[in-house]
Amino acid sequence: MDTTDQRGVYVPIRDSEQPQLGKFDKPLPCFGCGIGWFSLLLGFVCPLMWYYATILYFGNYYHKDPRERDGLTASAISALVFTIAAVITIIVIIC
């Protein structure tokens, strides 16, 4: 077999003008949807996941991968809405 045959060998895509182009070629964790969106969906079953994603959002986790920012933001907003709804419910029940 000829060692110069390059068929079937994958070469990372690089761009001299944008060196980070190949940085985000790998899929996101949690079945490809990212931690933020996964936490948002799982938060409807266990709302503590929204608070976990909120901590990641305020801890600037999205600097590692900017694709995570939207999901973490959605989870933070869900945590805020859930907290307000829980406080209003507790106030109505007590009074």
UniProtKB/TrEMBL annotation:
- List residues traversing the bilayer: 28-52, 72-94
Q: Which UniProt keywords apply?
A: Membrane, Transmembrane, Transmembrane helix
The keyword Transmembrane helix appears for this protein: yes
Report which superkingdom the organism of origin falls in: Eukaryota
Kindly give the PANTHER family that the UniProt entry links to this protein: 60S RIBOSOMAL L18A-LIKE PROTEIN, RIBOSOMAL PROTEIN L18AE FAMILY
Under which name does UniProt file this protein?
60S ribosomal protein L18a-like protein
